[in-house]
Amino acid sequence: MKETKKFKTETKRLLDMMINSIYTHKEIFLRELISNASDAIDKRHYLSLTNTNIPTAEYQILVEADKENRTITITDNGVGMTADELKDHLGTIAKSGSKEFLEAVEKENTPDVDIIGQFGVGFYSAFMVANKVTVLTKSVNENVAHLFESEGLESYTIEDAEKDDFGTKITLYLRENTEDEDYSKYLEEYELRDLIKKYSDYVRYPIKTWVTKYDPKDDDDKDSEPKTHLELETVNSMLPIWKKNKSEVTDEELNNFYKNKFMDYQDPLTSIFVNVEGMLTYNALLFIPKKPLFDFYQDKNEKGLQLYTKGVFILDKCKDLIPDYLRFVKGLVDSADLPLNISREMLQEDKAIKKIAANVEKKILAELSRILKNDREKYESFFKDYGVNLKFGLYDNYGEKKEQLKDLIILKSYNEDKLVTFKEYLEKMPEGQKNIYYAIGDSKEVVDRLPQMELVKSKGYDVLILSDDVDEFMIQVLKDYEGKEFKSINKDDLELIDEAESKKIDELKEEKKEFLNAVKEAIPGVNDVVLSKRLVDAPCCVSTTGSISFEMERVLKQQNRDVKAERVFELNPNHEMFTKLEGLYNVDKDEFNKITNILYADALLQEGILPDNPKEFSDYITKLILK
User: Fold this and answer.
1) Residue 476: CATH number of its domain
2) Are 548 and 563 in contact (CB under 8 A)?
3) Range of the domain at 97
4) Which CATH number does the domain housing residue 346 bear?
5) Which run of H or E residues covers position 199?
6) Number of domains making up the chain
7) Residues 245 and 364 in one domain
8) Domain boundary pick from 185, 206, 234
9) Is-contact 451 535, C-beta < 8 A?
10) DSSP assignment string, 394-451
């Protein structure tokens, strides 16, 4: 019985894009369909390892062109599909990322960007060249075959059918040629062969197509026209690209493999070959995407590298092969030292996996170091997208990886107005500078407005600008770099004034003890009031003591953790406001309390923190203006 189903609105939008040719590179339809066929064979072979009822086969993908009927068929003997799977995978593409696909197309606003595969809608690329598509399929999980048919407009049909073997046969009925597009070229033998070699040479199952062969001539028949016949020939090399020597693989082949395998539309930032032989033998091919893939920041995104053993696909995302902070890395590992039936539980305890993972991590960090050294612009582009991952990696597990990662961190330099490494900061340090100074702020302009910057700038010292939430946590884990301690201009004793001046302030603090206690009593919630050793022109500032800074307080509150920094109100004893405030204390306690709170609230605002009672602060300002 034939069942007719309507496409949903979102599905029709996508199909309309395909039918009306939003892409100029229509040839990728073949790449997408071959890739799907290869995946289907992978799935059948994997199932056969654990289910004796599912037979193995002499796996292959067959591509055939019929010029007379203007059709191309792609046939595989893979896992096949049930009727429900046809509806889910072909009839309802919302499950395959079509919403994100449509948003990406509208965002890019260009018909030349090849992003089909990235969103799992590769099957629908068939409608760029075909006005009708049929899918005859038989699942290894049932004995009934099904036929899907659609012209890619309003609906599709599914009905029971006859098929002897398991797998899927997709038939594309090509469009008629137009002034702008020659669809007939895809029926040519040389065109199909070239496209298979270009996009699918790495596929490890034989991709066969009919190839013209010339018959040898008889000695007595030299002047006659040559005779030919067709032979079914394997077009692709079938040697997995990761099994080849790096010198044998072109950049174009690597890029095409990456984009097809990992559903990206851009070439990768870099690729990494790993070939290890000895007590442990394995190959790895790793890629760093140029930009985070569309689902990178989504909760459903899972880290992991694909795992093969002896060339057989085992697991799509093996989490044990890559640490969390390198979750953006894509790639695969193929080892001859793992059993075909290895389970997820066994992987976690397998010593070989742990050794491979450690070496893979080492290779990735070595490649990042190479890029940092030889192509700074490229590294800074990488760090803009993935730097926060390295920072988390350094901070995680109490700094377990800090020695491996510290020289890969780059932060904004106040003086240089560019990104610098810790080593580069040290190289520019003037003689006599004892510490590495940093400040919390979204930009150089924000940091420049901090009153604590005045003294640091007067010394000519540079300041690292920390703008990510994780930055200060990372710095606390590091503690120092090459023996130079990290000092926050927002918090620590900067040790920038000479000993005589420091002693003078300490003596004055004892002398003004009663006054400072009165300031503290006037400000609810402040932990201490001190005479500042860091202010030059500003009358006051607010800082913190202890391990929690204002920035950490903000980050932890976002995590619903009730943590508050210990606030310290610093007064500049050399500023005329100090004298004014002390005079008020002696003659008008109410006015003294109001002005003290105004100064404190203003200091908080300079740190980007709202006063505890904004309305009270506003009322104070209003009364002061009207006075």
Assistant:
1) 3.40.50.11260
2) yes
3) 3-234
4) 3.30.230.80
5) helix 189-200
6) 4
7) yes
8) 234
9) yes
10) HHHHHHTTHHHHGGG-EEEETTT-SEEEHHHHHHTPPTT--SEEEEE-SSHHHHHT-T
Q: Are residues 462 and 539 in the same domain?
A: no
Provide the CA 477 distance to its chain's centre, in angstroms: 24
> Are 506 and 602 in a shared domain?
yes
For 86-104, letters b (16+ CB in 10 Å) and e give bbebbbbbeebbbebbbeb
Would you give the DSSP letter of residue 468?
Answer: S
CB within 8 A of 416, min separation 6: which ones? 428, 462
Instruction: Tell me how far apart the alpha carbons of residues 19 and 124 are, in angstroms, rounded to a whole number.
Output: 9
Note the pLDDT of residue 94. Answer: 41
Is 371 exposed, middle or buried, given 0-12, 13-18 or 19+ CB atoms closer than 10 A?
A: buried
pLDDT tens-digit map of 152-193: 777 889 999 999 999 999 999 999 999 888 999 999 999 999
- Confirm whether 245 is domain-assigned: yes
229 shares a domain with 126: yes
Return the closest-CA partner of residue 344 out of 318, 326, 305.
318
Q: How, if at all, do strands 410-413 and 463-466 pair?
A: antiparallel
The answer to whether the beta carbons of residues 127 and 15 sit under 8 Å apart is: yes
Instruction: Please classify residue 185 by burial: count the beta carbons closer than 10 Å to its beta carbon, then call 0-12 exposed, 13-18 middle and 19+ buried.
Output: middle
Other CB atoms closer than 10 Å to residue 240's CB: what's the count?
A: 17
SS3 169: strand
Residue 87 DSSP class: I
Q: Which residue has the tokens 């006063």?
A: 611
Q: Show the DSSP H helices in 92-135 as ranges.
A: 98-108
Q: Which residues pair with 271 in a beta bridge?
A: 287
* Encoded amino acid at 228, one letter: T
pLDDT of 24 = 60
Residue 288 CB contacts under 8 Å (≥ 6 apart), including other chains: 268, 269, 270, 272, 328, 329, 330, 364, 367, 382, 386
Residue 145 and residue 163 in one domain: yes
Facing residues of 75 across strands? 62, 169
Last-in-domain residue among 205, 234, 263: 234
Residue 487, beta-bridge partner list: 437
**By C-alpha distance, which of 287, 285, 283, 377 is closest to 328?**
287
* pLDDT reported for residue 218: 67
Helix (DSSP H) and strand (DSSP E) numbers for the chain: 20, 23
Q: How far apart are CA 307 and CA 617, in angstroms?
A: 61
| 169, 43: one domain | yes
CA distance 193 to 110: 29
**In the chain, which stretches have pLDDT less than 50?**
94-98, 109-120
**Tens-digit pLDDT profile for residues 435-484:** 999 998 889 998 998 888 888 898 899 999 999 989 999 999 999 999 99
3-state secondary structure of 159: strand
Residue 20 CA to residue 371 CA, distance in Å, equals 42
CA-CA distances (angstroms) from residue 12 to 6, 15, 152, 154, 400?
9, 5, 8, 7, 51
Which of 239, 220, 205 shows the shortest CA–CA distance to 61? 205
Would you state the torsion angle of the CA atoms of residues 492, 497, 501, 502, taken in this order, to the nearest 10 degrees? Answer: 20
Helix or strand (DSSP H, E) at 216? none
C-beta of residue 329 within 8 angstroms of C-beta of residue 364: yes
* Residue 14 located in a structural domain: yes
**Nearest-CA neighbor of 492 among 436, 554, 572?**
436
Q: Are 538 and 576 in contact (CB under 8 A)?
A: no
The answer to whether residue 149 is domain-embedded is: yes
